[in-house]
Specification:
Layout: H1 2-5, H2 26-41, E1 43-48, H3 55-64, E2 71-77, H4 83-93, H5 102-119, E3 123-129, H6 136-145, E4 157-162, H7 165-170, H8 176-180, E5 182-187, H9 193-206, H10 216-226, H11 230-246, H12 254-264
Parallel strand pairs: 1-4, 1-5, 2-3, 3-4
The chain binds adenosine-5'-triphosphate and magnesium ion.
Magnesium ion (MG) binds next to helix 3.
Length: 266
Amino acid sequence: MFRQHFGLKFNSFDKEISIDKLFSSRDTKELDSKLKYILDNRGICLIVGEPGSGKSVGLRKLTDNMNRSLYKPCYLQLTTLTVKDFYQAIAMLLGEIPRHRKVQLFNQIQDSIQSLYYEQHITPVIIIDEVHMAPMSILDDLRLLFNFKMDSANPFVLILAGQPQIRNKLALNACYPLRQRITMRYSMQGLSIEETADYCISRMKIAGCTSDIFTPSALEAIHTISGGIPRNINNIAITSLMYSTERKMLTVDEEAVYQANIETGV
Ligand SMILES: Nc1ncnc2c1ncn2[C@@H]1O[C@H](COP(=O)(O)OP(=O)(O)OP(=O)(O)O)[C@@H](O)[C@H]1O
Ligand SMILES: [Mg+2]
């Protein structure tokens, strides 16, 4: 209903967003440049961010744009997996038919990575998203799985992405060897107040609405409540637009944003 009311061709704050329409922010630029570095230099990279801060869309952009003659992206979203399930999933992503026993799988993954890198000159890029869900047994094993030639070579890129609690897990002594081998890190900061305003305005424009719907104080309120986290911004913007529509208001003011926030409890 709010789409019609504000003349939007589609829901401008929908979570389904195509990569070419992503908003460019300090976070996306920093993330892109760190990811470019790790692709060029290989090794292990850690991306940490609050839920909804844009980690997964950033990784989707990376894999979508990856040159397939140089890199093989293997994206794995961790749920609760045993070590063996985890190995099987990685083997499959590398294009293998997973072997049965854990030790065979371990060798199969290592052989596959080495064959890709040394024989086919393609760098495997293994992305483990939601890594904060990983049990310690998987984090322990990562270190061994990605140890090649007695740790003298890095024929791979390993990107670990997850919510801030991963830091606590990595801080444990058992994870010290893995932690020490992380050569690149990025922590998502969220959008600044100016970026939040630009984001909301640009989302409305993309959906075909050129007039200023959100008042300046509404945009400030959206930033304060959302903490600059894109998923929160989307949720607040949608409920604010709905709130104003129900009251037949032609703009979204600060009051609408705060009321919407009470409704959603973001
Ligand atoms: N640069 C951006 N441009 C436009 N929308 C974005 C951008 N970054 C994030 N979003 C929006 O925020 C939503 C959440 O982003 P994403 O799923 O990447 O978060 P996340 O950090 O992976 O969260 P989680 O830890 O819960 O998995 C996306 O679905 C998208 O709608
Ligand atoms: Mg995610």
